[in-house]
From TrEMBL:
<feature type="domain" description="HTH tetR-type">
    <location>
        <begin position="43"/>
        <end position="104"/>
    </location>
</feature>
<dbReference type="GO" id="GO:0003700">
    <property type="term" value="F:DNA-binding transcription factor activity"/>
</dbReference>
<dbReference type="GO" id="GO:0000976">
    <property type="term" value="F:transcription cis-regulatory region binding"/>
</dbReference>
<keyword id="KW-0805">Transcription regulation</keyword>
<protein>
    <submittedName>
        <fullName>TetR family transcriptional regulator</fullName>
    </submittedName>
</protein>
<feature type="region of interest" description="Disordered">
    <location>
        <begin position="21"/>
        <end position="40"/>
    </location>
</feature>
<keyword id="KW-0238">DNA-binding</keyword>
<dbReference type="InterPro" id="IPR050109">
    <property type="entry name" value="HTH-type_TetR-like_transc_reg"/>
</dbReference>
<dbReference type="InterPro" id="IPR001647">
    <property type="entry name" value="HTH_TetR"/>
</dbReference>
<feature type="compositionally biased region" description="Low complexity">
    <location>
        <begin position="23"/>
        <end position="35"/>
    </location>
</feature>
<dbReference type="InterPro" id="IPR009057">
    <property type="entry name" value="Homeodomain-like_sf"/>
</dbReference>
<keyword id="KW-0804">Transcription</keyword>
<dbReference type="Pfam" id="PF00440">
    <property type="entry name" value="TetR_N"/>
</dbReference>
């Protein structure tokens, strides 16, 4: 996914990304599973732990909650239950992401199929494909708003590598392939030199969308939802479609000359 992506600015520093396809991500996931903690079959205890973690992570932040607190909130007497099902905090976060990304990916792929069958996709329509499946999570009673707050925190992390097996990687790689398809479509609608390095506007649009939805989920999940959604689509389209200024063009050329020395 994002085949042209080689480095991403997640905070103030350049960050590097492991880039590949959904198939590559699946292979990596299989290898990691055989080398470490296997994913356990779903059951009541597992679902209760995920629900408790969603609530506590959203309320207080991912790093501000102990695994013991999650186990207690889930009503689990066995203090090793969380480790049994998820291995550690990152495994629990990955389970939360997988739970929700599956639905957003399915919805986005359906929208992509419909739009592509019609042809002549506009940049705003392509932007809506990124936004709308995630907006649906604001109305999801099964932890949707909590997931959006957790996802916003994940995309604002400053890891040096985005690994497809880690929680952030599951958001970016999207095993259902919908973000990969979206990325390909939107690249052809963007101004030249903006889709790949060093600007990475597609990743910036994904991150911005998650940050805005996380804020919305925290303060007012259901208020004026159509207006919020339309405005967010407008903003994403503007981010993706804004032409490069003369200054940015000049700085890009200077950077390219320095790299090629």
């Amino acid at each position: 996914m994002f085949e042209a992506l080689r480095s991403v600015v997640v905070s103030d520093k350049p960050q590097h990304v492991i880039v590949g396809t959904p198939a590559d991500a699946a292979k990596s996931s299989t290898a990691a599973s055989s080398a470490g903690v296997e994913r356990r079959a779903p059951g009541p205890a597992r679902a209760e732990l995920i629900t408790a973690a969603e609530r506590l992570f959203a309320e207080r932040g991912i790093e501000a909650v102990s695994l013991r607190e999650i186990t207690r909130e889930a009503g689990q007497r066995n203090t090793t239950s969380l480790q049994y099902h998820f291995g550690n905090r990152e495994g629990l976060l990955r389970a939360i992401v997988d739970k929700h990304v599956a639905a957003t990916s399915l919805r986005r792929n359906a929208l992509l199929d419909h739009l592509l069958s019609r042809g002549n996709v506009t940049l705003r329509e392509a932007s809506a494909l990124l936004v709308q499946p995630l907006v649906a999570k604001l109305s999801d009673d099964d932890g949707g708003p909590q997931f959006l707050q957790i996802a916003a925190e994940l995309v604002n992390r400053s890891e040096q590598l985005i690994d497809p097996d880690e929680p952030l990687g599951a958001l970016i790689y999207d095993e259902g392939g919908s973000i990969d398809r979206w990325s390909t479509i939107v690249e052809g609608l963007m101004p030249p030199h903006t889709a790949g390095p060093p600007l990475h506007r597609r990743f910036a649009a994904v991150r911005f969308t998650h940050l805005e939805l996380g804020r919305r989920a925290r303060v007012a999940p259901s208020a004026s939802l159509p207006l919020f959604t339309s405005q967010l689509v407008d903003l994403v389209a503007a981010l993706l479609g804004s032409p490069l200024s003369e200054e940015t063009e000049r700085l890009l050329m200077e950077r390219e000359r320095e790299v090629n020395r």
